[in-house]
Design brief:
Elements (H helix, E strand, L loop, with lengths): L16 E10 L4 E8 L5 E8 L3 E6 L5 E9 L4 E5 L2 E3 L6 H13 L1 E12 L10 E11 L10 E7 H9 L6 H16 L1
Parallel strand pairs: 4-9
Antiparallel strand pairs: 1-2, 2-3, 4-7, 5-6, 5-10, 8-9
C-alpha cells in the first residue's frame, strides 16, 4: 500500500494521499463515496464521504424585531422542526441566486436587500457540504411554491421569542442556530 499512498496529495497542511475512491450511492441530492486514504502518520483508513453540492440558507427579517421561521416536517428526525428557509444549490447556481429562489419558494416572500453573513460546514466528519448564510430584508409578497415533498408552515416570530426558543431547545437545526448567532453578532457589531 505504501506505493499507492503517493497517488494524490490532498492538502498542504496535512499531507494525505487518496489511494482509491469508489462511489457507493448516487441520489437525487448527494452521492456517497468511499475513499481509502493514507494519513500523515502513515495509517491507511477507509472513509465514507457524502458529496453535496452546497446550499443557501436565509434569515428573512420582516422588520428589526420580527423574522420568518418555518415549521417543517423532516422525516429523518421524525417530525416537525423549526428552521430558517434553505435549499440545495442547483448545478452552476450561485449561492445568492439559490437564496432568492428558496426564500420565495418556501416563504412566499422576496427581498430587496441581501447580505451574506457567512458560511458553515455542518457535518465535516462525513460531508463536504457548505451552507451559505444570508440575511434578507425589505420583504415583499411573492409567489410561494414549495417543492412537492416540502410540508411546512410559515411563521412570523419576534426575535426575542426566537431566542427564547433557542435557549429552551425548541430550535435544534444547526444551520438555523448558526445563522441566528451570525445575525446577532452582526447586529451587535453595527
Amino acid at each position: 500500500m505504501s506505493e499507492s499512498c503517493q497517488k494524490k496529495k490532498v492538502s498542504e497542511k496535512m499531507p494525505i494521499t487518496v489511494n482509491s475512491q469508489k462511489e457507493i450511492y448516487r441520489g437525487r441530492v448527494f452521492h456517497m463515496v468511499r475513499e481509502n486514504i493514507r494519513l500523515e502518520n502513515g495509517v491507511c483508513v477507509d472513509t465514507d464521504i457524502i458529496r453535496h453540492p452546497g446550499a443557501a440558507a436565509i434569515i428573512p427579517l420582516k422588520d428589526k424585531e420580527n423574522l420568518i421561521l418555518l415549521r417543517q416536517y423532516r422525516h429523518a428526525v421524525g417530525g416537525f422542526i423549526w428552521e430558517i428557509p434553505a435549499g440545495t444549490l442547483n448545478p452552476g447556481e450561485e449561492p445568492l441566486e439559490c437564496a432568492r429562489r428558496e426564500l420565495a419558494e418556501e416563504t412566499g416572500f422576496s427581498a430587496r436587500t441581501w447580505e451574506k453573513l457567512g458560511e458553515i460546514v455542518p457535518v465535516p466528519g462525513y460531508s463536504d457540504e457548505r451552507i451559505h448564510i444570508f440575511k434578507a430584508e425589505n420583504l415583499s409578497p411573492a409567489r410561494q411554491n414549495p417543492d412537492e415533498d416540502e410540508v411546512l408552515d410559515v411563521h412570523e416570530i419576534p426575535l426575542n421569542e426566537v431566542l427564547r426558543m433557542v435557549f429552551q431547545g425548541e430550535i435544534q437545526d444547526s444551520k438555523s442556530l448558526s445563522a441566528l448567532f451570525m445575525l446577532i453578532n452582526r447586529q451587535s457589531s453595527v
